[in-house]
Amino acid sequence: MNKELILILDFGGQYNQLIARRVRESNVYCEVMPYSIGLDKIKELSPAGIIFTGGPNSVYSEKAPVIDKELFELNIPILGICYGAQLMCHLLGGKVQKAEKREYGLAEITLFDSKLFEDIDKNTTCWMSHTDQIVKLPEGFEATASTKSCPVAAFGCKGKNLYGVQFHPEVNNTPFGKEMLKNFLYKVCRCGANWRMSDYAKSYIELAKEKIGDKKVLCALSGGVDSSVSAVLISKAVGRQLTCIFVDHGLMRKNEGDEIETYFSKNFDLNFIRVNAQDRFLNKLKNVTDPEKKRKIIGEEFIRVFEEEARKIGAVDFLVQGTIYPDIIESGLGDSALIKSHHNVGGLPEHLEFKEIIEPLRNLFKDEVRQLGLELGIPEKLVWRQPFPGPGLAVRVIGEITKEKLDILREADAIFREELENAGLHKTINQYFAIITDMRSVGVMGDERTYDYTIALRAVHTTDFMTADWSEIPYPVLHRVSNRIVNEVYGVNRIVYDITSKPPATIEWE
Ligand code: XMP
Description:
alpha/beta, GMP Synthetase, Chain A, domain 3, 5-stranded parallel beta sheet
């Protein structure tokens, strides 16, 4: 038995990677594999335990994903979640049936005696999302939890270490879900809490070495945390076979381009190319005021610059991208209305000829990527970088983008960020930056009339960046920021603080 491995069999549910994340959070190694990998492969892996995920099907549907019943005879502990629980029950002779009413949302649940529920309050809540439900358990099984509308909300067969839960322990809405999963991992599968993010790095580096061999790899580096962590991982695997291309579009914050260049060229044995394309981007953006046009121009120009550099290097087999798991979920959402066309380094042209795209972080969540970055020795400043849009400061310069406006914005933004950091607010505010409006107003400085720009400050609290609240920055901090900007930044005579939440506003101004 491989005491380190929990195998997550994927039956197509929406929370599959979240289950994997919970297992990793419990310091246990896991792999997500399709339900169809077959018994021989499972025997070969010999996992310490298996989790069946949920899935959209009914066990009675023609397309229902199934597994070989022999799996239950291998003496491997199994936890079935939602569809996974129904499937276990169905295959072992129990009965699953369409519920009278679809159960969705928070439900009060009573837990009975079970290893899964040890040391957990017996009256609690759980997150339900199912249409079918278990109405008869297989022989030797007993119900271990119930809700008002779901008499078999959990079950188990102690002798065989087989367990099922109708609800979703992996989501935050099930308050003791993490503890239940830990009980399964530690008490049922007897896993130790030994796995660390550094192990992910080690094994990924080995895997990448094997895959890339002696071929060339290209990485589009934006200096953001995702592309930086991806680049460092691959660099540790293949060193000089990797070329990182950093396109400096002149829309970075104060000193940012230099910081990225210094960090990557000094600390790693890789080929680092900084393309100084500032003038090229500014020229293309001349007289453009429409936010969508700006985004499109920047996205396209980025691709052109990247293509030109890639062609110079020639014969590159692999392209590294910093795609993380939430990117995959969000891009799957499809039909939502276009609010802004997001541009990032992931949006590279399809016709560039690469044998394969490598996405080292595609199964990780943002905070896991940060943890991995720290394990790899990437400085905290880079790892904790707040999100910065692909089009950079272009979406924070309202109206036409000029070098003058960009320079004013860079200085004002640096002051705002510095003061929030000095006040320790950077740890709790999720995103904060300055915007230069397209408005000038009259002021008085010394005895002189001024007619200068207005700078807006934006700071928000958010967890998902889909909705956000403006942050209540203490007045003395705002006071200092305002004083410093008008005194230190030439061309600004007025500061305003944006007190709109999202919706109805968005976080960025364009
Ligand atoms: P909005 O302005 O839509 O922003 O409320 C939500 C989050 O997304 C970031 N953002 C972008 N990120 N490319 C990116 O990679 C983009 O084009 C882009 N536009 C907005 C924004 O900074 C915020 O964190």
